[in-house]
Amino acid sequence: MRILLVEDDELLASQLGEALKSSGHELDWCADGEAGLAAARTAQHDVMVVDRMLPKLDGLAMLSQLREESINTPALILSALGQVDDRVTGLRAGGDDYLAKPYAFSELLARLEVLARRSDNAAPQTSIQVGDLTLDRIGHNARRAGVEISLQPREYRLLEYLMRNEDRLVTRTMLLEHVWDLHFDPQTNVIDVHMSRLRAKVDKEFDHPLIHTVRGKGYRLSASRYAD
Amino acid sequence: MVKRFRQMFQTTAARLTLLYTLLFGLLAIGVVFYISFNSGRILLQQYREVVDEEVQSIARSARRGGVRRLIPMIERRSRRPGANLYLVADPSGLIIAGNVRAIDSRLLSRDGWKLPPFPYLGFDESDEERRAIARVFTLPGDLRLLVGRDVGDVQRFRGVVRRASAVSLLVMVLTGVLLWLFVGRRALRHIDRVSKSSDRIIAGDLSERLPLAGTGDEFDRLSQSLNHLLARIEKLNVGVRTMSDSIAHDLRTPLTRLRNRAEAALGQTGQVDQEILDDIIADADGLIRTFDALLMISQVGSGARAVDLQPLQLAPIVNDVHELFEPLAQEQGVALEVDIQNQGTVLGNRELLAQALTNLIDNALKYGGSDRNPRITITLKQAPKRVLLSVADNGEGIPEAERDRVKERFVRLDTSRNRPGSGLGLSLVEAVVSLHGGALQLEDNRPGLCVVLDLPAT
């Protein structure tokens, strides 16, 4: 994944660069909005990370400009402001996701992978297949190894989100955002209980699990066996 | 002293006093002069009528009886007490009869009224010059008759009026100045007391209050409002201080824990224990969450300006949050029930209201547990112009005396000290409720606690 980082804090940028490189990604760094705009116009990045407050041209203005020019590289907005309506204004300006500082690196990486993936399969599929698990997106049901799994509406959406992001880390806040449309940290293990219910339906009767817990980070749905 | 006088002149009360004195004085002078001028004019008019009549009667007698009868008549009239002025002269100006001793002879050369008062000498002892108005009339035989009236009375009257008004004006100005001194000094004394108190307050003593004279006048009313303002500032100041104390105190424990873990990891040789690193990250996350909550409370608390409020229904939010928590409640053996009596339309922010409800259910699950049939009920109902959203449990509840205190930041009751939590949940709920123009009420659920969000309906 080739990532464009537009962030004026040099220390933070170099930390992020190290971490992204060690995860096998490539990073281009710009320290202000104008440089960021110029770099984004080359449109060779899979995803970009834009700080809201930038010298010369602020992050939101830079994004609006890019979207006007029909450059639709997925963008994640970083903000230290933490205003209640920040996320809404960020998304309105053309951002695709939003993360408030301070954030966990694993959370940022998980969101970037999901964002980058979103751009390369834009066409909706009628069914998703992961290993022996099939999700029917028209009938809203799932089958594993030919056995029908009955799902509650919310369980269906949970499973759909996990399957669409096969092999990728999905954090609890990402699940809360996409499945419940709630954008805050519930600070309890509510999501874990939902996940364990889903697991009981999807994995319990079968010889190897598809849903894996990534300790301290979230979940990953994968057909291959991970050593977590 | 000079400065003091300048200050006194600069007080509003003194300026008004001075202005009124000046205005009233000018008005009074005007009235006095108008009256004196007019009464003099009326008096002169009367004199002229009397003189006209006499001139005519004398002229009639002169035509009938000739000059022989005229002279004794004039002499007779001249001797009456308080008589008019009479004078008969020959064409050369030589005085033949009358009670005038000397006069400017040019006055007699032409008939008619001699109006601006002219000087003359009478026959009384004093040689002082007097003034009169008169009419000159030519008699048969070319004799000149002058009939007139001394105007000394009118001038004396005017003089008296002018002197009296001058004296009263002086008295008035003196009274005004005295009044000004009194009023100005009183106002200044009051202001001085207030500014002395203000200086002490500025110096840092926020418990100081402005003095009241107890008269209920405008100064007292102003001081009272300022005192209310001070009370509010003091309360906020205490709040800020308590909060920073609490932050320092409550963050010290997790920071110490984090530091000790990092030290332990540093002390390990070779491969660092993964579990210690996980714990360190968990500690840091906890601290970040606490800061996030604080930031959120302060932003929500800073008012509606920062947050977009839109008409929305509470019922779907209640259903979403209920659905989110239901499995967790079930796992803990708690019956989580919903009683939606109407849609509950309010002007609000979905995220914040959902988070407030989440915090309340989280609290109820953590602290509202009962040994027998634990049950949490979320109720949405309508009251006149209000929407009431409540979360009730059947646990231990909160003693009435503690109910206000638990809304404050970082406050945790002793019974919950050893359970997880930051003590910020209910503070955030309260901030969200007041942002929506509502009130947060903690009630007795007999047994248990019932938290009510009382929101204005739209």
Protein model, in words:
The complex is a heterodimer of chains A (228) and B (458). With 228 residues, chain A is of the alpha/beta class. Chain A has helices at 10-22, 33-41, 59-68, 86-92, 105-120, 153-164, 172-180, 190-202, and strands at residues 2-6, 26-30, 47-51, 75-79, 97-100, 127-130, 133-136, 141-144, 147-149, 169-171, 211-214, 218-221. Chain A contains 8 helices and 12 strands. A 5-stranded parallel β-sheet of chain A has the order 2-1-3-4-5, sandwiched between helices. In chain A, strands 6-7-8-9 form a 4-stranded antiparallel β-sheet, covered by helices on one side. Chain A is elongated, with a radius of gyration of 19 Å. The mean pLDDT of chain A is 84. With 458 residues, chain B is α+β, with helices and mostly antiparallel strands. In chain B, 55% of the residues lie in helices and 19% in strands. Chain B has 8 helices and 13 strands. Chain B has helices at residues 2-10, 12-79, 152-202, 218-267, 274-301, 314-331, 350-367, 425-435, and strands at residues 85-89, 95-98, 100-103, 112-122, 130-139, 143-150, 310-313, 335-340, 345-348, 375-383, 386-393, 439-444, 449-456. Chain B has a 6-stranded antiparallel β-sheet with strand order 2-1-6-5-4-3. In chain B, strand 5 and strand 6 form a beta hairpin. In chain B, helix 4 (218-267) packs antiparallel against helix 5, helix 5 (274-301) runs parallel beside helix 8 (425-435) and helix 6 (314-331) packs parallel to helix 7 (350-367). Chain B is rod-shaped. The interface between A and B is medium-sized, with 25 and 29 residues.
